[in-house]
Amino acid sequence: MRRACLVLTLALVGAGASLALAPPPASWIGAAGALAAAAMLFAWAIFRVNSSFWVETHWRAPRPSGAVALTFDDGPDEYFTARVLDILAEKGVPATFFVVGERVERHPELIRRAHELGHAIGNHTHTHSLRFHFRHGSGLRREISACSDAIRSTIGLEPRLFRAPQGLKTPVLGDVLREHGMTAIGWQIRGMDYLIRDPDRIARRMVQGAEAGGVLLLHDGGGLQGSADRSATVRALPMVIDGLRARGFTFVRADHLFSVPAYRTECAEAGR
User: Fold this and answer.
1) Rounded CA gap, 249 and 242, in Å?
2) CATH code for 57-258?
């Protein structure tokens, strides 16, 4: 919150200076301009998915890389996640799953299977509620802790990777993530598969838009935003993998792309 307070303080100082140094109505215009600029900065820092203003956010490798990190949000889903895991296993592709805690509690077997296949499991809050962004610190802590608890009870490891619902990050969330020692993960390109129902369009968007070292986003769970049907994602996934490989890309987990820990504590082989 220190950065938020600094922005607000600078805005108030600018507004005060305008009122003190300029006669009306110029002083009013200057004060309004200072406050508007502060409001725009706040909005940019919250809504820009890859902004590191409130908390450092990883979305593209800091060094040249021929790898990309394929990530999935909003699961697990008893039908679609199982299909995604089958395709990833067939193609030999590691991925990172940002899961919803209450869905982990309903389908722990899918998260255990994903972990056993070598995929990383990250925190995507417990309920994925739109109200998440308006909660105070204790509310955010409960959401994040409940999801981490669900993951830990399922695979025995506490996640350190986090992706915010809709990618939005507030100053309070930044404070909570630092308290939990968590790493925020954004994305370089997303398939828009929560809206697009044509698998060819999803695949084309991903393959053409991917950049070296980028984080790629698809969804294996449905109904939290857009359609509940992720069958187009499942059909697009083999085309995405084959198309990216044709471009010369390899696949790694998000934690490996950024050389950050996937879990709070893990033995040498546990999270690989």
Assistant:
1) 10
2) 3.20.20.370
- 247 contacts 213 by C-beta, under 8 angstroms: no
Residues recognised as catalytic: 73, 219
Residue 248's SS3 state is coil
Would you say 218 and 225 are in contact if contact means Cβ atoms under 8 Å apart? no
Q: Is the dihedral of CA 153, 156, 162, 163 positive or negative?
A: negative
Sorted by where each begins, the domain ranges of the chain are: 2-47, 57-258
The Cα–Cα gap between 72 and 86 comes to 14
Element (H, E) at 99: strand 96-99
Distance CA 213, CA 218 (A): 16
- Residues 208, 246: Cα–Cα separation, whole Å: 11
Q: What is the CA radius of gyration of the chain?
A: 21
Q: What is the mean pLDDT of each run of 10 residues along the chain (272 residues)?
A: 46 41 53 53 66 93 93 96 98 98 98 98 91 74 97 98 90 93 98 96 98 98 83 98 98 98 70 46
C-beta of residue 167 within 8 angstroms of C-beta of residue 121: no
